[in-house]
Write a structure and sequence with these properties.
- With about 425 residues, the chain is mainly β.
- The protein has five domains: about 1-50, no CATH class; about 50-130, RNA Polymerase Alpha Subunit, Chain A, domain 2 (Beta Complex), CATH 2.170.120; about 145-235, Beta Complex (RNA Polymerase Alpha Subunit, Chain A, domain 2), CATH 2.170.120; about 240-330, YbbR-like domain (RNA Polymerase Alpha Subunit, Chain A, domain 2); about 335-420, RNA Polymerase Alpha Subunit, Chain A, domain 2 (Beta Complex), CATH 2.170.120.30.
- The protein is flat, with a radius of gyration of 45 Å.
- The relative contact order is 0.07.
Length: about 425
């Protein structure tokens, strides 16, 4: 207590000594000095670190305060923000330091909701603009469905002689969770498995995929469990042989038409042949029954063309017994060379003449035979563009214009020499 009393007495004496020196004009000077010091500091700061603006795009908008029974099903939007502040702070700012949210705390039912975007910035930065200022989100209720059947699917094309005997998935059902609308779209859960090189039993753990009635994956769905143990039983039967279409009458197509290429079997040209191994070893390939294309002038697809089994050994079977064949027909084409075609100078300046060397060229064309047969030389324009050139000697490219359907291949020579001259006016002879 004595010590506190002594300290209090000292403070009072110090105040008594200081009080006579404090006047109103001193207080005013002090305030002015502080204001000037602050203004000087602000000016230095503005000079060394001036204010600037910056626009940052693709800031993700995060839903906030959404009840746990609801979920956003639309794609989360992004916004562009324009900020302002000291240059050093603005330039050092990373987009991850900006948080854009929408408050969904008042949402209680599924539907479309439009909310204003709220942006939080680091200290000493100011928000100038948000584009767009509002976003619209689709909200749906979370749902769950149990006992959805699991179906094993083969994700790749099996060889024709590899037969699927049985498939089994463990577990046989799964539980799905997600937005109610998407949960209702799911008809089954698939267990897609790749079979490459295996020929008997395949066992593998595969991820489960929720799909709709058309087999299309439904996004945003959680499957429980996420994987299944799949067992696939396979059996090899017979041997694989290629099928080659047998075509007759290719030399009797409609006039002016030809095969665009060898006929093809689709979707696959392989079939399975079964029988004694000694008999199969004597069969290198199979053919279809003859297909007569006489008189054809257009491409065709022939369905279920029988395979020719008339010469197969006894006891040999073919599966499938028919194939699909595509036959492509096009207009017959050929190339022709026209020699000695005159070259015409175009855009010769008035008052000048143009001499060409050489004055003719050879022209190679291609196209349908019937068009080339009817081609009139008057329909062909071979020229050089003098472009109103002054007198002189020029090397100019040869250009060609052809009727529709006829293609230009090459011209020889491709460049000709053009001499542009200005005719001299004859001087009249003096009268006697």
């Amino acid at each position: 207590m004595v010590r506190l009393a002594r300290m209090r007495a000292r403070l009072l004496r110090a105040w008594d000594n200081l009080r006579p020196t404090i006047r109103r004009d001193n207080v005013a000077r002090f305030i002015v000095a502080v204001a000037l010091a602050f203004a000087l500091w602000a000016w230095v700061e503005a000079t060394n670190d001036p204010e600037t603006q910056r626009t940052i795009s693709n800031i993700p908008v995060i839903p906030a305060n959404l009840p746990p029974s609801l979920v956003v099903t639309s794609e989360l939007p992004t916004v562009t923000v324009r900020i302002q502040g000291a240059q050093s702070r603005v330039q050092a700012l990373e987009s991850g330091a900006i948080q854009a949210t929408v408050d969904l705390g008042d949402v209680t039912e599924p539907g479309m909701y439009t909310r204003r975007v709220q942006v939080e910035l680091p200290a000493r930065l100011r928000l100038r603009e948000v584009i767009p200022p509002e976003v619209t989100l689709q909200i749906d209720r979370l749902a769950e469905r149990a006992d959805v059947p699991v179906e094993v699917t083969i994700a790749n094309e099996l060889p024709p002689n590899l037969e699927l005997v049985s498939t089994q998935a463990d577990p046989q059902t799964a539980t799905i969770r997600g937005p109610e609308q998407r949960v209702n779209q799911v008809t089954r859960v698939t267990a897609p498995i790749q079979i490459t090189g295996q020929t008997e039993i395949v066992r593998e753990s595969v991820a489960l995929v929720p799909v709709d009635e058309n087999g299309i994956t439904v996004p945003g769905i959680t499957v429980e469990p996420s994987t299944a143990n799949v067992t696939v039983q396979l059996r090899i039967r017979g041997q694989v042989r290629r099928v080659i279409p047998s075509i007759v009458g290719a030399d009797r197509l409609a006039p002016g038409y030809e095969l665009a290429g060898p006929p093809t079997v689709f979707p696959t040209d392989e079939v399975v042949v079964e029988g004694p191994e000694s008999a199969l070893a004597a069969i290198p390939y199979l053919t279809t029954t003859p297909i007569d294309v006489s008189g054809w002038s257009e491409s065709r697809i022939l369905w279920d063309v029988p395979i020719d089994t008339s010469r197969l050994p006894a006891g040999v079977r073919v599966d499938p017994p028919t194939v699909n064949v595509s036959i492509q027909i096009r207009r017959a084409e050929e190339s022709r060379t026209l020699q000695g075609i005159p070259v015409t100078p175009m855009n010769v300046r008035p008052g000048t003449t143009a001499e060409l060397s050489p004055a003719t060229v050879d022209l190679e064309l291609s196209g349908p035979s019937d068009l080339l047969d009817r081609l009139d030389p008057a329909e062909i324009l071979v020229f050089v563009d003098v472009e109103n050139a002054d007198a002189g000697v020029y090397q100019l490219p040869v250009r060609v214009t052809l009727p529709p359907g006829v293609r230009f291949e090459r011209v020889t020579p491709a460049v000709v020499q053009v001499t542009v001259r200005t005719p001299t006016t004859p001087v009249p002879s003096p009268s006697p």
